[in-house]
Amino acid sequence: MPDSMRDYLEQDMACEGLLECGHGLGDLDLAVFRTLTESAEPLSIDEVAVATDRERSTAYRSIQRLVDAGFVRKEQVNYADGGYYHVYRAADPKQVADDMQRMLNDWYAKMGLLVGEFREKYEEAATREASD
Fold first, then answer.
1. Quick one: which of 17, 54, 84, 123 could link to 13 by a disulfide (CB 3.0–4.6 Å)?
2. CA angle at 46 for the pair 43 and 52, rounded to the nearest 5°
């Protein structure tokens, strides 16, 4: 993982790099997301675990990270005689992209404010030093 924003900007990055850079998600999370997007039907944890060749608990943790990031939706399926289980499907790609764009815009605005603060602080210090 790159250490700085400059490192990120200097490396070749695929669109999936947004998962790592913007959400702290890793290779397994990308594999799980890809599995869910390629499936016509929502999948259970067990189905995701088999498809990604991982333990059930590992697949579950990855799905939870994806749900928390808004990339995956959890749905409840009820049994006719009582009880239920959950299945997971990839979120609408348009909505995910819109959310990432908003996050990027928010980050850009915040960085702009910080750059302005930096400029004021150090230009003021340089001006004081030059006048002394």
1. 17
2. 85
